[in-house]
Amino acid sequence: MSRASSSPIPLYLQIADSLRDRIARGVWQQGEIIPTLEQIADEFDVARVTARQAVQLLMSEGALTPQRGRGTFVSATAPTLKPVQVVTTLAALVEMYQATTQQLLTVEENRRRPPITTADGVLAEHYVHMKRVHSSDGLPYCVISLYLEDKIFSMSPDRFREELAIPTLVELSPRSIAKARQTLTIGSADAETARLLRVPTDSPVARVQRVFNDLENVVIYYADVVYRGDAVKVEMDLGSLPVKNSS
C-alpha cells in the first residue's frame, strides 16, 4: 500500500494517522503487539526511518509502548466519539442537542456579519459572532462559527454564551424561526480547524451550514459547523422494493 507522496502532509504523519485509526477501530486491541517497523515500512512503501517516526509519535501520545526484546504493544485504547446523527428537521435537531452532554469552549467572540448569499435571505443590521469548539467527554468533535441577530442575542447574552445556541433560541424566541434549512458537504480540515479538533491537517470532515430566517426572510441565525469525519453518522431509511406477484 503506497502513500500519496504528493500530499503536503509528511509521510510519517499520514502513517501515524492510519495506525491511530486501527487502534480506534479495535483492529489493534489493547495489549496486542503491533507489526515490526520493517513490516510497517513494507506495507506503506516507505523507508524504515519513516515508519519509526510514525510509531514514535504514537508512543509519545501514550497509545503504544515498547517492551525491550518483545516488540511494541498497544498500551491504550484510543478515545472514541459517539457519532452525531445528521437529522433533517428542526424539532429533531433541538431534541438531539437537548439529549447530549457537551462542553463548550468559545475561542472567539465579536461583531461580524455572516457570510451569506442572497439565496440565504436578508441581512439584519447587527450580529454577534461566536466561534466555539464542542467536545464530548473531553474530546472535541466539531468547530462551529455561529452568528446570531443582535436583538435575539440581547434577550439573554449569558445563556447564549454558556449554553447551546439552538435550544436556547427555540426556547426564548420560537416564533422568530419561520424557515430553517441546512446543507451538508464533505471536505478536509484546514490547519486551524485540524488544530482545534486535534486531527491531522486535511483529515476528512463534514461541513454543515444552517440558516434560520424570520417571517421577513431576515437571517436570524447562521452557522458553519465542521465535524470530525469520525463524529458524523448519516442514516436514512430507504424503504423497500415492492414485491412482484409471480402468480
TrEMBL record:
One of its GO terms (molecular function) is DNA binding. It comes from the Bacteria. Residues 9-77 form the HTH gntR-type domain. Pfam families: GntR (PF00392), UTRA (PF07702). Keywords: DNA-binding, Transcription, Transcription regulation. One of its GO terms (biological process) is negative regulation of DNA-templated transcription. This is GntR family transcriptional regulator.
